[in-house]
Write a structure and sequence with these properties.
Elements (H helix, E strand, L loop, with lengths): L6 E10 L12 E10 L3 H12 L14 H11 L5 E8 L3 H22 L6 H25 L3 E8 L8 H22 L6 E2 L4 E3 L4 H14 L13 H6 L6 E4 L1 H15 L7
Parallel strand pairs: 1-4, 3-7, 4-5, 4-6
Antiparallel strand pairs: 1-2, 2-3
Helix pairs in contact: 1-2, 3-8, 4-5
Length: 273
C-alpha cells in the first residue's frame, strides 16, 4: 500500500453459477459481481443492511433461501447505499466460446507443464479469472472516475481454492498489474490522481464482508437464471443498472478475442500461466 494515499476503498468480489460446459448446469451464465465502497462508510452500510442481508445471523443466507420479496427489498436497499456495483458474465452455451476456451485450457496446460512444471489449471479457474479481472478493473475505474482522488483499493475475493502454484500470480501479480495498468492509463489521459492496489486478500472466513458480497451475488444471479426457473427475477439487474457508475459487462465475445490474441502472442513468447 502506498502510505501517501489516505483515501481507502474496499472491493468485494464473488461469483455465481457453475463454470462448466456440462448440460446439467442450473444456469447458462457464469457471473462475477464486485461491490466497491469507501472504508469509512463500511460500518454504516452494514448497519443499514445487516438484518436484511443476514449479516449477523447464526448462519449465512443461502441462494435458495432468498425469496423474491427479499430480493426486491435487498435490491431497493442497495440502491440507497453509497456503493458501486460491477457485474460481468459469460454465456456458457456459446459454441464458439466453448471451443476457444477448451483449446485455451489444453494449450495453457501444455505451457504450464513445459515452462513452469506445475499442475494443470481447470476450466473453472480460467472462467473465474476472466470475470474477476473484468469486475475489479472496472470497479477501480468507476470509483476513481466518480471520486477523482488518489485511492488505495483493498480487494477481497471469494476463497476459490486457488491452486498452490498460482497463488502468487492470482493474489500478488494480478494486483501489481492492475495498479500499473490503471495508473498508466490515467497518466496518458493527464488525470491528476493515482491508485494503489496491495496484494489481493481471500475471504476465507465467515464475516460480514463475505456475507455481504455473497448475498449481493445471489440476488444478482436471479436475473441470469433461465426464465422458466421459479427463482428468475429480472429486476435486480435492471434496477441496479439505473444507478450511475454501476456497470454490467457481457464479456463472452470479448473473452473469445482476448484468448485468441493471447494464444497467438504467447506462441511466440510463452508467459506464465
Amino acid at each position: 500500500m502506498n502510505s501517501d494515499i489516505h483515501n481507502q476503498a474496499i472491493i468485494l468480489f464473488d461469483e455465481q453459477g457453475t463454470p462448466t460446459f456440462r448440460i446439467d448446469k442450473e444456469t447458462d451464465s457464469f457471473i462475477g459481481v464486485a461491490i466497491t465502497y469507501n472504508l469509512t462508510h463500511e460500518s454504516e452500510i452494514f448497519r443499514q443492511c445487516g438484518d436484511l442481508f443476514g449479516l449477523y445471523n447464526a448462519n449465512p443466507l443461502k441462494n435458495r433461501q432468498i425469496s423474491n420479496t427479499r430480493v426486491e427489498n435487498i435490491t431497493n436497499n442497495l440502491m440507497q447505499l453509497p456503493v458501486q456495483i460491477v457485474i460481468a458474465s459469460v454465456n456458457l452455451t456459446n459454441a464458439e466460446f466453448q471451443q476457444v476456451v477448451t483449446l485455451y485450457e489444453e494449450y495453457g496446460n501444455l505451457l504450464r507443464t513445459r515452462h513452469r512444471n506445475v499442475r494443470e489449471r481447470p476450466l473453472a479457474h480460467i472462467l473465474h479469472s476472466h470475470v474477476l479481472d473484468e469486475c475489479v478493473f472496472n470497479s477501480i475505474r468507476n470509483y476513481t472516475e466518480s471520486n477523482q482522488i488518489d485511492t488505495n483499493f483493498s480487494v477481497f475475493i471469494d476463497d476459490w481454492s486457488i491452486p498452490y502454484d498460482d497463488i502468487k500470480i492470482t493474489l500478488e501479480q494480478r494486483s501489481q498489474y492492475l495498479e500499473s495498468k490503471i495508473n498508466s492509463i490515467y497518466q496518458e489521459l493527464n488525470l491528476q490522481f493515482r491508485i494503489s492496489v496491495p496484494n489481493i486478500s481471500l475471504l476465507n472466513e465467515d464475516n460480514s464482508r463475505k456475507r455481504f458480497v455473497g448475498v449481493l451475488a445471489s440476488v444478482v444471479s436471479k436475473s441470469f437464471m433461465n426464465t422458466e426457473n421459479e427463482r428468475y427475477n429480472e429486476n435486480p439487474l435492471n434496477y441496479l443498472m439505473t444507478i450511475k457508475f454501476n456497470d454490467y459487462f457481457e464479456i463472452t465475445n470479448q473473452t473469445i478475442e482476448f484468448i485468441r490474441d493471447f494464444m497467438d502472442e504467447s506462441s511466440r513468447n510463452p508467459p506464465e500461466f
